[in-house]
Automatic annotation (TrEMBL):
Peptidase S9 prolyl oligopeptidase catalytic domain ranges (all copies): 471-686
Keyword Protease: yes
Keywords: Hydrolase, Protease, Serine protease
Domain Peptidase S9A N-terminal: 6-411
Highest taxon listed in the record's lineage: Bacteria
Similarity field: Belongs to the peptidase S9A family.
Hydrolase keyword on record: yes
Protein name: S9 family peptidase
InterPro entries reported in the protein's UniProt record: AB_hydrolase_fold, Pept_S9A_N, Peptidase_S9_cat, Peptidase_S9A, Serine_Peptidase_S9A
């Protein structure tokens, strides 16, 4: 084992934009096929293993805690579609889920919850598909409307390039007509004769929708739609009513939707409304109309409709209400359900046939997250929802939309004697430098002292209007039961407080994300939850950018930082249009190629470019070699520069050599990864020897 951290060769490479020349001595680490790059990553892994060898027992202990609290042999609540109940099984000792179905019995209304189901069909066994592979992920799992065909796609590298296949569910045969290099998302024609799918361009941008005829070779497939604007992604899906194929083209700011009648899959796509810069919209088919959720003159979105036969004028259905963000709409034969958020919490609004007898579903806890869960059936008066909080395990309810009765179908089992009343959740508010109040969600064991002595972990994200809502975690119990306070900083750039919350944390307001997080950290200290010496920060992906930024901005406020698949060299990446995602990201971060202002602003907060000789907290960076969203070399360069610039610090880099953006794919492997991070956090907090 190595005795010292690895050193890496410095090869000055100059980047020049807008008359500004920047030297990057570690740019060569982007050469993925260079044996020296792989040797360096392996050397970092070896050093990390040595530096954390004393935590091996704790890692095993935390892994066992997660495993022992999890019901390993389990199944999801069956969901009805046509004449079948569909569900997923997990089996003790198996890494992946098993997709199954069973025929609906005569007069059967409630989902069959018994473990043993006579007549069960195994549609897809992830464990069989993954046999002999280091990584496995499903891209699509899509049963045709008649229940006779299954479209599924697999990725064995973690690079999110999937091979699409079709299985005959009547005979069990997997057809020979497979399609490599596909993206997420498929849609069946009404009769199951045609399958629509997506491919990506060289920059990993989903841009083409294809039509495949079942039983024919992929060489016969036809391009149905091609998006030439490099800012836009495309998606494809079948409406819940099974009447239309929907092709959705979206940039960060603008949308355009086309539809094809599902019964005539070779028809030309029809546009619902031509794209208008800055106008986002999505559609749902509902009888004679298309529902349109949009932000035209409606920052927090409004709901309208137009004719399904001849799309044109939009008629208002739910007007814009500032402060109530309408996030999505789901149509059923006699009801509409709107997913919304208000005051930092999610909610569901139900509208009946007349669209006037609306009501909001009530929920009992002060902090929670709720949303629709599945619901493939269109002609129904009941919907399934998922509900959770910081103390309530994931729960599945069926809701009668007429009587408003809620029936709990299943709550995620937590083995080993979990009692929600042993824990408390709180909402605190921090005050940002510009006076903005920033919400913080907190959970802790009852009895934790508010005198600053408790250790704490603060999590943050804050980009893409993605909200980190209150949620339950079995793995988190290993922290809580050792006295750690867990908190989520709902910083600007996310969507927790509506569209304006997002707008105020992107582009030339991006620094609000970072200063909000620091304000939350300092509020936890001021309010007695913890102290800077006992506080660890954690975030991943764009949240990893947040971690790198706060390391430079306020290193004194944290004892440690965990940055997972961190976007820590954003300016270099956004300056390279050939990289995956770059052009589509310009509407999120700004275009530093065109704008000197954006260039200077991004350079001023880029974690990699602002590494300085500071007293940094301990830092653990975790990445994956095959990540196509945040390339591995960003954290690799970051750790190398930290060591060279501030050599007295404690920096670790761990690279998954056979995984992608989400880390290890199997559930046991992901638990081991979580146990690794948890053990490191506990060690930083001085709790390595404390039992749960």
């Amino acid at each position: 084992m190595p005795e010292t951290p690895p050193t890496v060769r410095q090869v000055p490479s100059v980047r020049t934009f807008h008359g500004d020349s920047v030297t990057d001595e570690y740019a060569w680490l982007a050469e993925k096929d260079n044996p020296e790059t792989l040797d360096y990553l392996k050397a970092e892994n070896a050093w990390t293993e040595k530096a954390t060898a004393h935590l091996a027992g704790l890692r095993d202990q935390v892994f066992q805690e997660i495993k022992n609290r999890t019901q390993e042999t389990d199944l999801s609540v069956p969901g009805r579609k046509g004449g079948y109940w569909y569900y997923t099984r997990t089996v003790e000792g198996k890494q992946y889920g098993i997709q199954c179905r069973v025929a609906v019995a005569p007069a059967e209304v409630d989902p069959p919850m018994a473990e043993d189901k006579p007549g069960e069909e195994v549609l897809l066994d992830g464990n069989a598909l993954a046999e002999g592979k280091d990584f496995f992920a499903l891209g699509t799992f899509d049963v045709s409307p008649d229940g006779n065909w299954l479209a599924y796609s697999t990725d064995f590298d973690g690079d999110e390039r999937f091979t699409l296949r079709v299985k005959n569910l009547v005979t069990g045969e997997v057809l020979a007509d497979e399609v490599p290099g596909t993206f997420y998302g498929t849609a069946w024609s009404g009769d199951g004769s045609a399958l629509f799918y997506i491919t990506v361009d060289d920059a990993w941008r989903p841009y083409r929708v294809w039509r495949h005829t079942v039983g024919k070779p992929a060489s016969d497939d036809v391009i149905v739609f091609e998006e030439t604007d490099e800012r836009f992604w495309v998606g494809v899906e079948l409406t819940r009513s099974e009447k239309f194929i929907v092709i959705d083209a979206q940039s960060k700011l603008t949308s355009e939707v086309h539809v094809i009648p599902a019964e005539t899959p070779d028809a030309e796509p029809v546009v619902i409304a031509p794209r208008e810069q800055g106008v986002e919209y999505s559609i749902e088919h509902h009888g004679h109309r298309f529902l349109i959720l949009h932000n035209k003159d409606a920052e927090d979105f409004a709901l309208a409709y137009t004719s399904a036969d001849a799309p044109g004028e939009w008629v208002e259905l739910v007007p814009h209400e500032p402060g109530t963000r309408l996030e999505s709409v789901d149509a059923f034969a006699r009801h509409i359900v709107i997913s919304q958020r208000r005051d930092g919490l999610t909610g569901l609004r139900v509208m009946g046939d007349g669209s006037t007898d609306s009501y909001d579903m009530p929920f009992p806890e002060p902090l929670y997250s709720v949303g629709l869960a599945g619901n493939p059936e269109y002609d129904t008066t009941a919907v399934r929802i998922s509900y959770t909080s910081m103390v309530t395990p994931d729960s599945i309810y069926d809701v009668d939309l007429v009587t408003r009765q809620m029936v709990l179908r299943k709550q995620k089992p937590v083995l080993g004697g979990y009692h929600p009343e042993d824990y408390e959740q709180f909402r605190e508010w921090a005050r940002a430098g510009d006076g903005t109040k920033v919400p913080i969600s907190i959970v802790a064991r009852k009895g934790v002292e508010r005198d600053g002595s408790a250790p704490a972990l603060l999590y943050g994200y804050g980009s893409y209007e993605h909200s980190i809502d209150p949620y339950f975690s079995i793995a988190r119990l290993s922290l809580l039961d050792r006295g750690v306070v867990f908190a989520i900083a709902h910083v600007r750039g996310g969507g927790e407080m509506g569209r304006r919350w997002y707008e105020d944390g992107k582009m030339l307001a991006k620094k609000n994300t970072f200063t909000d997080f620091v304000a939350c950290a300092e509020a936890l200290v001021t309010k007695g939850w913890t102290s800077a010496a006992r506080l660890v920060a954690r975030g991943g992906s764009a949240g990893g950018l947040l971690m790198g930024a706060i390391a430079n901005l306020a290193p004194q406020d944290f004892a440690g930082i965990v940055a997972q698949v961190p976007f820590v060299d954003p300016l270099t990446s956004i300056l390279d249009p050939s990289l995956p995602l770059t052009v589509t990201e310009w509407e999120e971060w700004g275009n530093p190629i065109e704008s000197t202002e954006v260039y200077g602003y991004m350079k001023s907060y880029s974690p990699y470019e602002n590494v300085a000789k500071l007293a940094y907290p301990k830092i653990l960076a975790v990445t994956s070699l095959n990540d196509t969203r945040v390339l591995y070399h960003e954290p690799a360069k970051w750790i190398a520069r930290l060591r060279a610039t501030a050599p007295d610090g404690d920096y670790l880099l761990k690279t998954e050599m056979g995984a992608g953006h989400g880390g290890p794919s199997g559930r046991y492997d992901s638990w081991k990864e979580e146990a690794f991070v948890t053990a490191w956090v506990l060690d930083v907090l001085g709790l390595a020897d404390k039992k749960a």
